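User: Can you predict the 3D structure for this chain?
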Amino acid sequence: MNASILMPDEPLVDRAEVPPVDGTPVSLSAQAPAVDLRADRLSPDGHPSDGRPTDGRPLYRQLAEQYRRAIDNGVLRPGDRMPSMRAFMQRHGVSLATATESYRTLERDALIDARPRAGYFVRARQTATLPAATEPDLAAAPGAAQFVGIHSAISAIVSKFQRYPDALNLGGATASPDLYPTDALQKAALRALRRRPTLLTAAGPDQGDPELRAIIARRALDVGIQIGADDVIMTHGGIEAVNLALRAVTQPGDTVAVESPCFFGLLQALESLGLRALEIPASPTTGLAIEALAFALQTHPDIKAVVVVPNLQNPLGSVMPDAHKARLVELCARAGIPLIEDDPYRELADTAQPPRSLKAWDADGTVIHCTSFNKTLAPGMRVGWINGGRWHPRIGMLKFAQSRHNEQLSQVVLAEFLETNAYERHLRRLRDRLRIQRERMAAAIAASFPDGTRFTPPGGGMFFWIELPRDVSSSRFFDAALDEGIRVMPGTVFSNAGRFDHFIRLSCPSTDLDQADEAVRRLGRLAARMVAHA
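Assistant: Here is the predicted structure, written as structure tokens:
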């Protein structure tokens, strides 16, 4: 064996054998301040020292312990980049085997994570936690269905946002643009225009690009959805799909059961169609309460449809368990009520396999499946699709009457992207980046917000549904946060029944982790001041 190769259990090399280091601090993250991690300067407690580890343990364990202490002491923070293998070997004067074993030890202890083609990054430590969000009272009878009146509240928020154009947006629903494959999509668009120069001038098929619809149908099989290309209609994002579904199965004045809290965009759609909303409580962990919906169906025979976001619900971030999904589909099928599934976040879940859609349990066309690529691939493309179940022909007619065909260029670009492994690689990177951002923001929330704050960290996506202390009004908090240069979404817009006044929705779209940390700390201080002056 080459004598210059150190195995993990070999003793420390002599200082004379250590390659010289120029003394320049190394930045571990584009967002983090420079941190000096030279082996002859970092002691086991994470502070500068002139000594190297000298206990009797294998060298790789001693080095792993140094980094563990640096993480515990906050020298290295969640999201910080670890040194590359080459840099680690040079700084500590060790072999590749020792460096590899050091990182394996840290990875096994859930202190760092590997990101494909990017290196190793510090994971969030779950040391500071807050109580879980309050579960809904399932014994309470549902209130009366109400005509929705949310437009004025949303308009007021948008107007205030416009007065603060430079505010940091922690209230949005899409990730930062640099988390999406901008260059790859641009190149695909140029190739598409060279191959088909009339894409921008020729009218496309009414249902959408045939190649894209065929690819979508094949991909749907992977998650248990049995449809063909003719069962897919392309739409202008997910919101048009939901609007088409509602128009297909309701008339003005009808009642629609929705989750509570509920995405305000759905409430706006109901209002624009002259529909009543019946709010059904939803759990921050399991989503829509099936028992509460079953009771509502008995006491409100005028319910004409149910709308639900089963995977990473907006704003809760909850994922409905498979057993609940099966029961929900069965309940609606027995009642003969269409179940409209809005499913744009499913592929952002932190699971080995994405959670299944409700449509996978649909045996008779009860489920109208609506989704889009807005959150997962390209918000600017606004490409969505719908399968209308047994209402599919009517939805196709309504689509033609409402907006005709979608523009084709985005569809052709998307078809090329989905046909290769590029989309799956992008999704892995996106989920990983969002997880790092969520973990770091969750730690900052837990460390910064006052006693009485509660929230349940989601298992994917980018939302935090935060329950503030009872004395804090989300409307006043929203206004005060804007004065601080930070956008949040007040809980009042996620209900048509005046609920959730002490809740806010935060999101983690920013890739500047230090900036987001500081914003969360300021929000925490703001909440503490509001509690103190209540």
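The first strand starts at residue 26 and ends at 27. Residues 94 and 108 are 20 Å apart (CA to CA).
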